[in-house]
Amino acid sequence: MERDRTVLVLGGGVGGLVTAVELRKRLPRRHRVVLVEREAEHVFAPSLLWVMVGKRNRGDIARPLARLVKRGIEVVRGEIERIEPDARRVTVNGQVLTGDHIVVSLGAELAPEAIPGLAEAGQTFYTPAGAEALSAAIKGFRAGRLVVLTAAPAYKCPAAPYEAALLMEADCRGRKVRGQVQIDLYAAEPGPLGVAGPVVSAGVRALVEAKGITYHPGHQVERVDAAARRLRFTNGAEAAFDLLAYVPPHRAPKVAREAGLVGESGWVDVDRHLLTTRFPGVHAIGDITGIPLTMGKPLPKAGVFAHGQAEVVAQNIARAITGLGTAARFEGYGECFVETGDGRAGFGKGNFYGEPLPEVRLHAPSRLHHWGKVWFEKHWLWRWF
Question: pTM score, two decimals?
Fold first, then answer.
């Protein structure tokens, strides 16, 4: 009789959640699916922007991972201390777990400390706590200079800082203080969503500038003087702010770096279609991976890609264990909503593996697309929990 197998899924974000649930559906119950996550809850990250402007609270967009137990998934909560990919062994709070397969879906680690003064000067809308703090600050902000900043040229959810600026601009109009608030967006990158091509990039920039938001591309922040409320950039420019909302630099989690999983790109190298690593039996998906595109830029870090990669990996691992089903490949297709405020959203979709350039189209903002994102949020939390 074939022996029982164990699959360790590291990380309870989009990629890890989808992997664990899909594996459980595909594997007989005698095979173990173990999800390891340090947080008690899964937070639907796309809705953090709505938390930032007071349209949601954390309870609306979070679900306890313990609910997965009723699906037959073992949930181990704790800090991952060590990954030994060659032995497919993981140490969590002193407990050693061994798997026949490991799926690394630990995401990108936020590193605001990489920019001196950044964490002390503002708040990030990339975490629940940061989004909540920004929401409180925005409610009392009636006049001055509001700055949205990307502290590095590459980050997850590439549309998010542009959406943040647009949503805060709409919020200021709704509170009738827009005339007293100047909004600037300083970007380390040369343009919005550059990987999606020049047409999409120009379209997003036009959306921002049409709302009177001043856009400053190519400004890499060097340090922040929190006391003086000033940004200093590597090109010699400086900028003042009264309220700062930022996207921090990202890096691969320390435990992955120490495990030898990370390559020269600073991220985990994988086969772009199968998400396999150089270690047999070890896959990596989502934001922790670095997948180069033909155009020279990496595949963006976004939940939609983690989701698609998770489905591929789950299908292929289940096939390896049971011998059933067909092989799957990730082909680089992705889509996302772009919130623009006033109950409207744009919608972008396309093939990011397209050659020589990704084949991506941005649909104009509409109420239909906004309600599409609302529906997607509700459906996601219902489907997976």
Answer: 0.96
